[in-house]
Every structure is written in C-alpha cells, then in structure tokens.
Design goal:
By secondary structure, this protein is of the alpha/beta class. The chain has 13 helices and twelve strands.
Amino acid sequence: MRVLVVTSSAPSVEGGHMVIARELVRACRASGHAADLVVTPQNRFGRQGAAYLATWLTDVGMDAEGRLVDHVISLRYPSFAVRHQAHTCWLNHTMREYYDLWDRFSQGLSWKNRIKEGVRQRLIHAADRYLLTANVTRVVAQSATVQARLARMGGIRADVLHPPPPQRVYRCDGYGDYIFAVSRLTPLKRFDLLLYALAQPAARGVRAVIAGDGDAREALVAQSRRLGLEDRVSFVGRLSEDALLDHYARCRAVAFVPHDEDYGFVTAEAFASGKAVITCRDSGGPTELVEDGRSGLVVAPTPDGVAAALTMLMDDPARAESMGAVAHARIATLTWPDTVARLLAGPSSPRM
C-alpha cells in the first residue's frame, strides 16, 4: 500500500507532532508499505486561512514518483484539509488558541483584537467541523483528552489510539539520585510549577535535571535563581538522542506536569526506560497512561502536591523501581506495527 503521512508545521519548529509523523512513516515502511511524509504550512496568526487553503489545494493523489496513493493519514490542523478518498485523521490537536486555550489567549487582547480574533475563531470552528466530518473518512484521536475536545466541538466522535514511544533503544541503567524533566520550555509545560515544588521544604533534598529549550527558558532560569535552586537544578538545554536516552536511563523518575497536554511522548519514553512518571490531575494525556501509585504518581497541580511526590520517590528507590517495572510493562502493550494496522484499517465515515 502507498501511504502519505501529512502533518503541518511552522518553519524551523520541531515538536512532538513531527516526531510522531516521522515515526509513523518509519513504521509504515517497516510494515511493508511505501510511505512518505508531506509537511503543509502552519502560518502565523492572521494567516491561518491561507494555510488552510494551501493545504486544501495540496495534491496528495500521487506520490513523488507519480504513483497513486492508497491511503492518507493526517495528524493536525490544518493538515486534515488535504483531500483523498481514503483519509484517516489521527488527530493530535486543532488550533488550541481558538478552542480550549481561548480564554488564556484572548484575555490579553484589546477589545478590537478580541472581536477580530473572535470572528477568526468562528471561521476556524466552521472549517474544522466541516473538514473533520465531510473531508475525512475516519477520525482517530491520539488520546482521550483529544477525544473529549472533539466531542465538545459538536459531537464529533473518535476512537482513541495512543502513539507508542519513538522507535529508539531505551534502557534502564538504574535509579539515580535526580529527577529528570524534559520538554519544550513553554508556559503550558509548567516547569515553573516544578521549580516551585522543588523550593518547598518537603523537597529540599531533591535534585533535578531539566532538558529542552523554548521561549520560557530565561524566565525559568531566573526563577530558579530567585528560589535559591542553582545548586539543585541543572538546565542542560536541548539534548542529542544519546544524551536524552542516557538521562532517561539513569534518573530516579521523570516529572512531567503540563496543563491539559494532548498526549505527551515524555510519559511514553519514561515508561519505555522503566521509569515512573510524576504528573498532575489536570495534565491531560499523561494521566491516561500513569496509574496513580502503580506506574507513577498523579497529584494535585500545586507546589505542595508535586513536592510530596518528588520526595516520596527520592526517599524510596525500591518503590521507584517497582513503579518503573509496572510502567515498562504498560508501554510494551503499545506497538508501532499494531498502530499502523489500526490506522490503515478500512476507513469509515466520521460519526456524529
């Protein structure tokens, strides 16, 4: 079967959606299919309509060598605007600023810009609803969190299929003396919450390594200094694959406390490395994998709640190891061959 995986991306942006897209292409090829990746534009605010139109006009009927494409799998807005008679949308997310993040996004706008963006919001809602019901033949959500968002969009129903971890050689080298945290350093990932937790008296002996880069890095480094955490928190920047796997292998546990995450590969990668994950009740996707008290800890999104969880696992390496074993067994049930088979199963009409 000839498969095109279609996703969108802003220029020079490397996020989890691109990792999923590349891993899916790789998995399709490993399953015996001819697969390629198509990246459509994701324009800045005010240019979204042009991105939707450009994607709508993108020809996905044939591959680069002029052979007919049998199946298209799109991943996120506006990539699901491509047209094909066998089109599965494995949805990561729509444009969240116009959906679940609208209140956060709009509160800083002037009244004129709020009206303008409100009009754009309604247009995007109408376009997405049409595309996800009439333009695709099947909708699959990457998490129950995304599934619930679809339901709120107007009753769009979707099955859930969690992405497996990236196809890397994960390992566990033990349960070291630090907590590992990795992601893009942006406000929604709530690294500030982790830093406040580390500053609590209950967590005074906990050391953490924070990896990743993003627009919140300078503010987080400054916060760490204000809280007196320089000797216990290391910001190591964006890591190579080998360095990333090494930290997963050696840490005691992984802290991943975002707000309403779509899915979050961090949880899957930690589990694949035999490590428990600390997350929060409102973290979305991670809570679908982490079973509180068994494969990790799901706590209140407060400094005290996170601090107690950090301390619990740092004070009890045997418990961290036991949870890590459960986590490893849990993620082993998610495989790329099964994912490919389910995504390429006979498409059906979207249900409402």
